[in-house]
Amino acid sequence: MKLSDLHISEKLASRQIVVTPPVSEDCMGSFSIDLHLGNHFRVFKHREYPFVDLGSPSQVFAMSDEVMESVIIGDNEAFYLHPGELALGITVERVTLPNDIAGWLDGRSSLARLGLMVHITAHTIDPGWDGHITLEFVNVGRLPLALRPKMRICAISFEPLSGPTSKPYCEKKGAKYGHQDSPLSSQIERD
C-alpha cells in the first residue's frame, strides 16, 4: 500500500524520509513527489566501442568508466537525446529512505507520450537508500528530445514494508550505487 500525500508529508516532517532540497507544495502529488533533472549525464562512446559483450563482463565492464563519458551541461542548456539512444541522468534531489520504506520511480506520462523512457528496469529504490537517483533515459520516439536541467522528470512514491529490512541498501555488502552524486555507469563487474 503506497503512502498518501498526507502520510508522505508526515514522514518528511519527522525526517523519516528526507528529500534535499526540500519538497515544494507544487511538487507534491496525491501519492508521490515530483523530482527534477540534474545537469550531469553519461553517454556511451559508441564510436570507440562498437559493442558491449554481456557474456564477458570482466573484460568490458571492468572498464565501464572508459566505455561511457560524462557530459555536464549548464542550467540554461539542453541535453539532446536522439532516437534510439541511451543516456544516464541524475536527479537534482537527494533521497534518503528509512529501513522500512521502499521507493518506486515512475516516469511522467506527458514525457512518455513524446517517446521518453525515464527508467528501463530500475524503478525500485531500496529501503535504506541514500543518494541522488540515476535515471536511465531512452528515446523511443522519432524526433530528438531536448532535456533541460531542473525540469520535472519523474515522480517517486513510497511503500511501507511489513517491517524494517535487515539489509538496508547503503549498509549491505555489495551495494554499488549508494551515496551517488552523479550518474554511475554499470558496476556489474562488482557482482
Can you offer a commentary on this structure?
This protein has 191 residues and is mainly β. It has a single domain (5-177), classed as Deoxyuridine 5'-Triphosphate Nucleotidohydrolase, Chain A (Distorted Sandwich), CATH 2.70.40. Helix content is 11%, strand content 34%. It has helices at 5-13, 57-60, 64-67, 109-112, and strands spanning 18-20, 33-36, 40-44, 68-72, 79-81, 86-96, 101-107, 116-117, 124-125, 130-139, 145-147, 152-160. Strands 1, 3, 4, 6, 8 and 10 form a six-stranded antiparallel β-sheet that branches. Strands 2-12-7-9 form a four-stranded antiparallel β-sheet. The two termini are 31 Å apart. The model has no long low-confidence stretch (mean pLDDT 90).
